[in-house]
# Entry
Amino acid sequence: MEEKGELRGLQWKDVNLERRTLSISKQITDQGETVTNFHFSVPKTKSSIRTLKMPKVLTDDFIKLKNEDKNIKGFNNDFFIAGASFLLSSNTLSNHKNENCKLAGFKQIRIHDFRLSRSSLLINKGDNVQVVYKYLGHTKIEETLNTYTRLFNAALNEVVNLIDELE
# Structure
């Protein structure tokens, strides 16, 4: 999955604020690494095409952002969520992330690491792995299981510790 491409391709028509859903059906593919020469393409795999329920905090942020975007002359549902009436470059997203991490005093991580962190948190909190794999858009559950094996090993150690405490 190409998170930056999917994020850059999101338009307001892909978001339903009332239902709190976000539909991923396309991504941006740059030609020659320029925002003036891009096209929409389908995500890498069929399972990457999905509709996700948004948490309230994201929905609230999107409501504020959409209200700001509505003040831009010519606003319509084809506007990009990240960039409004124009497409943001892949580097612009990374630069904003880096600036915000620095301001917050956080360690620099790749954009993909946000996906890994969120998934690890969900699995570590006991969410159903089958649900997490569908949320991630993986093709096979084995992708999720193989990627997050260390979390399952930690959980297995906890189970053994609990059994030891029972004796």
About this structure: Helices lie at 3-9, 56-69, 90-104, 111-124, 129-136, 141-147, 149-166. The beta strands are 15-16, 21-24, 27-31, 34-41, 50-53. The radius of gyration is 19 Å.
